[in-house]
Design brief:
heterodimer, A: mainly beta, Immunoglobulin-like, 22-stranded antiparallel beta barrel, 5-stranded mixed beta sheet, globular, B: mainly alpha, two-stranded antiparallel ribbon, 17 helices, 43% helix, membrane (chain A), transmembrane (chain A), transmembrane beta strand (chain A), Plug_dom_sf (chain A), CarboxyPept-like_regulatory (chain A)
């Protein structure tokens, strides 16, 4: 609106000017951006040495009066100012080049920001363009594969599921391995992003090396992810933006080749099992029998008449998601604001799972009129509600919907569903789909979450050189869980008929508060710039939860979340006694630290940090620890000898330093709260009486785990900045690892948590961007983001330097130790293994024949290959994610090849080529195999994959076509996630780190519109 | 400059006020020095010790690794990889659980005794104080004996390796080696002698607490295991006299927890108590409801019976015997001609009902530890050992008849035995029936198998799937290996691994 007014006004001015300077001629032309060839509206065009000027219109066109010989000056924000002399021609077109210096990226360095050139740290940045408008519920999931060294794995497709985030390998064996996440300066729970709206995010900076993370010492050992949300700009009119996305999620493919009805029954017939062999279920016990048994094997004709039902289609669906975000931003002279309102409603691909979310955010910036006092606040209020499926990943034939989907025999159909009472009367293991359907119909599991993140920062310039700053924030979340089971449900009638159902509710409040108070001094002496800062940091986290289980529900009046249907306990027994629970935990950290910065002429720089940290976790003697770092840079491209080189930018960086980890076990601030101490606890004991029992054997020598990191990196831009990127090599060493020190079982436990052992991570981060085509119409850019990381263990606490499950000295972390499977014995149909002497055996010795496999579940290579194309408003973006060097047991396949369950569950059609008689050469053992009880590498599968992780295609309508609509920008786009995956792994999701009856992440197709007013 | 000073002082003040971030006491922690301050605290402490005891692991081992059970109608392969194929190594669940459970008990008792010693009772608390100490010492003896019974190769050889004795709280770095059986028995004797004088009650009214009779019963069992029948006989006789065998009506009540007839000691299992949960099906880790070791849901034919009676155990049961009614679920389907059944699994469904449930909870029952039937059969062993086989009194035949008379509810024929081996075989078979699913079978084969010339033998139909049907009474797998995990923290023990386990 403002823009329109401005150029109307300008036209008016031009008209006025025309009257005054009648002898000049009209010069017209079009100004475009050299980078993308799109017209540039709002470019100021001045006749040099005069006050005469105009601005370009929506189409980049201008018209100005000038005389021959006059010089026109074209200027625009972030573009190089250009001059053209008026000659004979009446038309002057111009392609304006980006001003590289002006575009210099802002880099977050600890508590302050710096220009990319002056930064000496290793960090990566992702801006809003790569995060926004993705169909995913989780901000973290959208970062997958975008940042070199940032390994994000999502094991569950349940809406709102958490992801595991690890930077540059794994730094700890039992402690926390996830980076510190800060949103607008407020540290937040790294396991909870389901309530946050990715469309509010301005940028994500990932700080990697010691130079960057030491300043976060007590929590920076695993790296730091700094998230900034959008803010308004001062002196701007109201801008309104709307984004709407509609998504369709479906199950990814598997290649397990599961049997159909004919194959299932033929297998059963061959092996004398179940229906195929004519055997009924429970015929003798009078239960609810779907097939009483004919006594003789089914004929081909009978088999052909049986139903063939796909239970995967029954339990899974196409999940529809809608996502709406409206943002408003504006600013006056001394204040600006950004407001965002979001609504998100996602259906999971499994029935009965979904997430519904409301977001509200308001960010305000302000300053005093003299500019000495500056402040900013941000508040985000998020409410989400989700139906969660439980028992995912378990073998619960009456619980896990994945089991029902994958393992149900295809000759059962939903029409066969017995009643809850019938299901409760008898147990037939092959009735898994009916048990699970009954469970889904008769139970509820609801999570409600309120999450508030609020932050305040304020600074005051005491003198020109000295600034005092306060930065504080809170992360509050309240999760209310509801879990209920109807009285008339199979599981209730079966397991606990005396209790008429139950309703469980639990409220879990977590509150964390952090404040950082600092005093900074900055001063320039000629070409020398010095900075000095002193900081005090305080962190406290509280957790309070309480809940109840109400036993006994009246089905007529019970509604989840209400007590109308609660039945009281009767005098007859204690079946309906309700139970209550409550917990209270506190955690805290205290730190003070100093930082020193020096720069010489933007050529050389040095940063140093020293800090003292204390954690509530350790005994008083080990509470405080010191961490430090030093980082330096050399901006080679700023040296005069580089003036004529191909490099637009070349910078060498190096850093070394330490940071600490005090989250020694578990996932929360509060877990492992007082491991140094021995204590007893009061509990309900023998016969229901109160009891006091020894509860924890403490280790009062526990202390901080320390990560030392060396990083050397280079940032570069060359060939007219066509090729840009950075390469970093690093070596990290974690010492005093929190590990289980083996002790004799006479202590009542086999291990004691102690600081022992060393873990190394070595690797390379690479980010390369190359502009393949850079014309006014067509731009093609390619990008490679990659990380190679190798872990190595040392000083393991065992006599032979090996701990099964952890690894061996000099080996990989969590290296798999198992028997070597060597095929099927053609003579017997049994499995063959290699023994310790590499001889084939059917009877391996588990103690002596297992070997280290040099395979583990941590990837060696991660990254992605991206292509960005735009052509006259059309744009296409693809991200191919890859991962290599990770191995995992395929537990699903192992289950589909378990011969014991033929006739009970759906199996793989690979059984059709099972060994049958001596001489058969096959990879599938005899169904009567008697040595498959040993764990071996038979189902250990390379999980290497290449995946089209993300693709986006769309069109930006040219401003001209929108002129009459009142809309200032319009963009239509189409997204796809996980469109296809190439992998040897046969399951649904090669990227998942969990395997076996897990909720697979979906394939998502979505359509979106973005409107600006 | 003034401003800076002002700010600095604010910072300093803030810093002083910040220590609450790191000085945090978590709620509910009882630090050892101040845990036991009253006799009530000590009573809670001894209840805590009771809470540690669970015999389901013992029952699961005896069920899974012997000839007690066969795959049931609802099997999903539970136990197929372990007991059904007699797969036992130092990494198996059985040695891991038996070892660590025993030492958790001992460690907790010794830690508790430190607190107990530090408390000085008043005069009127003295008797209760002594009684608490007596129970702790009796438990310590029991745990030592349980450990020995799993990890010693030969109960009767005092020079054989037993287990490390623990009579005080160990240091974190302690790496004790195995003591000899003789030393372990001496430590047990010492604790039992002390317990005997400290315990206030001769017997427990509910049978669920330790009394002097628990001590006597334990002594009798230990003596029988050691082959010291001169000690065992009088103890067993006394207990049988004071705990008469149950009547038929009482006997069925025992398994429903309605009757305490003939029960010297049992572990109580209560609704919503610490053992009211579904344990690990088919694993020696067990835990939770005892009946869960055979069925997922309840003790009926449709209750998810993944294990059932092995056929040749069942063949020893007589429908006229109350044990048939008490141990076999009425919903069972007994095939009249099981050997020729078309569908053996579904036509012959022999459901274990020893732990049908109580207090409204399926499958949860008290765990019987000492019953006078065991004492009677210990007498029989003593007579057999003395070669007193036949005759109306003080003989194997008389003891067996006494038990059968009670179980049939009518006088039964007096059996006759021609050899000692035959008599021991009769005792072993009677024990097999009487104590089916009570956790004795595995150890009974080990200690009596040779003398009775009996092995673990499964019915061919029961073991057809894996064709693993027999385990000899001298097989090394009737002694558990020292668990692999112990070696990590106590490498010296590797040298003392039991034979047969790859050393």
């Amino acid at each position: 609106m403002k823009l329109k007014l401005t150029w109307l006004l300008t036209l008016f001015m031009a008209f006025v000017m025309q009257l005054s300077f009648g002898q000049e001629k009209d010069i017209t032309g079009t100004v475009t951006a050299a980078s993308d060839g799109l017209p540039l509206p709002g470019v100021t065009v001045l006749v040099k040495g005069t006050a005469r000027g105009t601005q370009t219109d929506f189409d980049g066109k201008y018209s100005i009066k000038a005389k021959s010989g006059d010089v026109l000056v074209f200027s625009f924000v972030s573009m190089k100012t250009a001059e053209r002399t008026v000659g004979a021609a009446n038309t002057i077109d111009l392609a304006m080049a980006d001003d590289v210096a002006a575009l210099d990226e802002v880099v977050i360095t600890g508590y302050s920001t710096s220009s990319k050139k002056k930064s000496a740290i290793a960090s990566s940045k992702v801006t809003s363009e790569t995060i926004e408008n993705r169909p995913n519920a989780s901000l973290v999931q959208t970062l997958t594969g975008q940042i070199p060294g940032l390994d994000i794995s999502t094991n569950s497709g349940q809406p709102g599921a958490n992801s595991l985030v690890q930077l540059r390998g794994v730094n700890s064996i039992n402690g926390n391995t996830e980076p510190l996440f800060l949103i607008d300066g407020v540290p937040v729970n790294e396991d909870n992003f389901r309530s946050l709206n990715a469309n509010e995010i301005e940028s994500v900076d990932v700080l990697k090396d010691a130079g960057a993370t030491a300043i976060y010492g007590s929590r920076g050992a695993n790296g730091v992810v700094v998230i900034k949300t959008r803010r308004g700009t001062k002196d701007s009119t109201l801008k309104v933006n709307y984004v709407g996305i509609l998504s369709y999620a479906t199950l990814q493919d598997n290649r397990y080749d599961l049997v159909n009805t004919r194959q299932a029954l033929e297998l059963e017939r061959t092996y004398g099992r179940a229906r195929g062999a004519g055997l009924g279920n429970g015929a003798q016990t009078g239960g609810n029998v779907l097939f009483p048994g004919t006594g003789s094997p089914l004929t081909d004709a009978e088999i052909a008449q049986e139903a063939d039902f796909d239970w995967i289609d029954f339990f899974f669906r196409t999940g529809v998601t809608e996502n709406h975000t409206i943002t408003l931003s504006s600013g006056s002279a001394n204040a600006s604001q950004f407001t965002s309102i979001g609504y998100f409603n996602q259906e999971g691909i499994l029935n009965n799972s979904n997430l519904q979310r409301f977001n509200f955010r308001n960010n305000i910036n302000g300053s005093s009129s003299n500019g000495k006092f500056n402040y900013g606040t941000s508040i985000s209020v998020n409410y989400s509600k989700s139906d969660q499926l439980t028992s995912i990943g378990t073998n619960g034939v009456n619980q896990n919907p994945l089991f029902g989907a994958l393992s149900s025999l295809p000759y059962f159909t939903p029409d066969d569903q017995p009643t809850s009472q019938q299901l409760a009367n008898d147990f037939f293991i092959e009735y898994a789909p009916f048990y699970i359907t009954d469970k889904l119909n008769t139970s509820d599991r609801l999570d409600e979450e309120l999450k508030i993140i609020a932050g305040l920062n304020a600074s005051y310039k005491i003198t020109d050189d000295i600034t005092a700053t306060f930065n504080g924030g809170v992360d509050y979340q309240n999760v209310v869980l509801l879990n209920s089971q109807d009285p008339i449900s199979r599981n209730q009638l079966r397991f606990n008929p005396a209790v008429d159902g139950f309703a469980q509710q639990n409220s879990d409040r977590q509150f964390s508060f952090q404040s950082t108070t600092s005093l900074n001094w900055n001063k320039q002496f000629g070409k020398h710039t010095f900075g000095l800062g002193g900081y005090l940091e305080y962190f406290k986290a509280h957790r309070r939860s309480f809940g109840f289980v109400a036993n006994g529900l009246d089905p007529a009046t019970f509604v989840p979340q209400d007590d109308a249907g609660f039945l009281a306990d009767t005098p007859d027994d204690d079946a309906r006694v309700d139970t209550v629970s409550a917990t209270k935990s506190d955690a805290g950290l205290l730190s003070y630290f100093g930082a020193f910065d020096y720069d010489f002429d933007s050529k050389y720089g040095l940063n140093a940090v020293v800090r003292r940290d204390a954690s509530y976790r350790f005994a008083t003697t080990n509470r405080w620890a010191t961490f430090w770092s030093i980082a330096g840079r050399w901006n080679i491209s700023n040296e005069s000898f580089m003036d004529d080189s191909v490099f637009q930018d070349l910078k060498l960086r190096a850093s070394y330093g330490t940071s600490g980890n005090q989250r020694i076990q578990g996932n929360t601030y509060w877990s492992g709260a007082d491991l140094p101490f021995n204590f007893f606890t009061l509990l309900q004991g023998y016969g229901g009486a109160d009891a006091i029992l020894f509860n924890q054997l403490g280790n009062n020598e526990l202390k901080w785990e320390t990560v030392a990191q060396l990083n050397v990196g280079v940032d570069f831009a060359l060939f007219d900045s066509r090729l840009r990127g950075s390469i970093d090599v690093y070596e990290k060493e974690t010492t005093d690892l929190f590990q289980d020190q083996p002790i004799s079982g006479v202590n009542g436990q086999f291990t004691l948590r102690a600081n022992t052992g060393t873990l190394k991570n070595r690797g390379v981060d690479v980010a390369l961007n190359y502009d393949l085509v850079r014309t006014s119409d067509l731009n093609v850019g390619v990008q490679l983001v990659g990380n190679y990381n190798q872990t190595e263990l040392a000083d393991l606490p065992s006599e032979d330097g090996e701990i099964i499950g952890i690894g061996r000295n000099g080996g990989k972390l969590r290296e798999i130790f198992t028997l070597r499977y060597a095929g099927v014995n053609p003579a017997t149909g049994n499995l063959l293994y290699l023994d310790r002497n590499n001889n084939l055996t059917e009877d391996p010795n588990v103690d002596l024949d297992r070997v280290w496999t040099d395979r583990n579940s941590v990837p060696d290579f991660t990254g992605s290959f991206n292509i960005n194309v735009d052509y006259k408003g059309w744009f296409l973006q693809t991200q191919m994610q890859f991962e290599a060097g990770r191995d995992q047991f395929d537990n699903d396949y192992s289950r589909f090849l378990n011969p014991d369950v033929i006739g009970q569950f759906r199996v793989s059609a690979d059984f059709l080529r099972a060994w049958q008689q001596p001489g058969d050469v096959t990879d599938i053992p005899s169904v009567n195999v008697n040595n498959d009880q040993f764990g071996s590498d038979r189902f250990l599968t390379p999980m290497d994959f290449i995946r089209l992780r993300f693709a986006q295609f769309g069109y930006n309508f040219p401003a001209k076509s929108l002129e009459t609509t009142g809309i200032s920008s319009l963009r239509l786009f189409m997204n796809a996630e996980n469109l296809f995956t190439l992998s040897e792994f046969r399951g649904f999701d090669a990227a998942s780190r969990l395997n076996g009856l897990e909720y697979p992440t979906p394939r998502i197709l979505s359509f979106g519109v973005e409107l600006g007013f | 400059m003034k401003k800076i000073k002002y700010l600095l002082s604010i910072c300093t003040l803030a810093f002083l006020g910040c220590n609450d971030a790191i000085d945090i006491q978590q709620p509910g922690r009882l630090i050892p020095e101040t845990t036991f301050n009253s006799i009530e605290d000590l009573q809670r402490g001894i209840i805590g010790i009771y809470t540690l005891y669970d015999t389901t692991q013992e029952i699961a081992l005896a069920t899974n690794f012997t000839d007690e059970v066969a795959p049931g109608v609802a099997t999903g392969g539970q136990g197929f990889n372990t007991g059904f194929v007699f797969e036992l190594n130092s990494g198996s669940t059985a040695p891991f659980r038996m070892w660590i459970d025993g030492y958790i008990e001992l460690f907790s008792i010794n830690t508790f005794l430190v607190g107990l010693d530090a408390y000085t009772p008043s005069a009127d608390e003295q008797a209760e104080y002594n009684n608490i100490r007596g129970q702790a010492l009796a438990f310590r003896a029991y745990s030592h004996f349980q450990l020995l019974s799993y990890f010693s190769t030969d109960y009767a050889d005092d020079n054989a390796l037993g287990v490390p004795i623990q009579t005080s709280v160990p240091g974190l770095g302690d790496q004790p080696l195995r003591d000899t059986n003789g030393d372990v028995y001496a430590a047990i004797e010492q604790d039992l002698d002390d317990a005997q004088t400290l315990l206030s009650d001769m017997s427990s009214a509910t049978s669920t607490f330790i009394s002097r009779d628990f001590v006597s019963a334990l002594r009798a069992r230990i003596a029988a295991y050691r082959g010291d029948y001169t000690t065992a006989l009088p103890l067993a006789q006394d207990l049988v006299n004071r705990y008469p065998l149950a009547t038929r009506a009482e006997f069925t009540g025992i398994w429903l927890d309605n009757s305490n007839a003939e029960i010297i000691f049992k572990l109580e299992r209560s609704f919503n108590g610490p053992f009211d949960f579904q344990g690990a099906s088919g694993s020696v880790a067990a835990g939770g409801w005892a009946g869960n070791m055979w069925a997922f849901v309840n003790a009926t034919a449709g209750g998810g019976a993944y294990y059932e009676f092995s056929r040749n155990l069942f063949n020893l049961f007589d429908p006229a015997d109350v044990r048939y009614d008490a141990y076999l679920a009425p919903s069972s389907v007994v095939s009249p001609d099981y050997q020729n059944a078309v569908d053996f699994v579904n036509e012959d469904v022999l459901v274990v009902q020893k732990y049908p449930g109580s207090e409204g909870q399926f499958l949860m029952n008290d765990l019987k530890v000492f019953r006078s039937a065991e004492m009677l059969l210990i007498q029989a062993e003593a007579y057999a050992d003395a070669n007193s086989l036949n005759g109306g009194s003080a003989s194997v035949a008389a003891a067996i008849k006494q038990l059968r008379d009670a179980r049939y509810g009518s006088p039964q024929a007096l059996p006759t035995y021609t050899t000692q081996t035959e008599a021991f075989a009769a005792i072993l078979n009677e024990r097999r029936v009487e104590f089916a699913f009570e956790g004795h079978r595995w150890k009974d084969i080990k200690r009596l198998g040779a003398r009775a010339n009996q092995n673990i033998v499964r019915d061919p139909l029961d073991c057809a799937q894996f064709n693993v049907c027999e385990l000899n009474n001298n097989d090394f797998r009737l002694t558990l290996p020292i668990p692999l995990t112990e070696f990590n923290g106590n490498p010296g023990l590797r040298e003392q691994q039991n034979p047969g386990y790859g050393n």
